[in-house]
Amino acid sequence: MSRRALGALVAGALFGVGLVVSGMTDPRNVIGFLDFSSRWNPRLVGVMAGAVGVHAALLALLARAGGGRGARLLPPRNDRIDRSLIVGSAIFGVGWGLSGYCPGPAIASLGFGARSAFAFVAAMIVGMLASALVPRRHSGCEAP
Amino acid sequence: MWNGLLGGVLIGLAATIYLLATGRVAGVSGILAGAIGERAARGERIAFLAGLVAAGLIAAVTGSPAAATPYPTPVLIVAGVLVGFGTRLGGGCTSGHGVCGVARLSRASLVATATFIATGAATVAIANHFFFAAGTP
Description:
heterodimer; A: mainly alpha; B: 75% helix; 0% strand
């Protein structure tokens, strides 16, 4: 196994442990966050704050590494706000609210052997393949 | 709340390790789509996905209860298609836009994140009203 693949494997496992520890593999915690009624569940706010805070801090350290050369490690960023960004994110949100699953937790839940996760992930792959039929956004990270 | 924060810290660390190892942003929808549709870098994308599944497996083996989904399978299938289609059209999901993009203060990612939280909340409100009026799902 290459070093890149090994790094990716470790990252995936750590990411998954983070999702399990934070309760994000339980769709009820996600639905509870999206439910802005009296039973609002703020757990997802803590997850996002921890993840964004740590990632931003490490990126800032990285950018300064080697007298600023570290910034070159960062992939290009696509900052364009266009219709596909808005429409795509809106459609994603509807599916997220209908299930309590987004891609990361759904894939990690395959390890639990949850049947619902298998159905969801199979459908998600169909949706991804279908998206090739329309012009779509290229994110900075997944270069075209 | 503290479990949430701790899990978030691990996710932020993992996203940074993925970036350092591969030079790409740790967006799970993009990694899955790339593993399916692209030949380049397929191995490392599959490795990341395998790590994610392994984490779930470890949790199951060590006795974490499997999370129960309150939804019937047909609803999950519709939701899955919407999530797959929407994340590709919009160029990211909760991890790529919500964590990595927001951490880089990308305007597009901030807009995307606000949009999917808004439509997600609207969907839950409507679903609670019409489908789950009898109780909390």
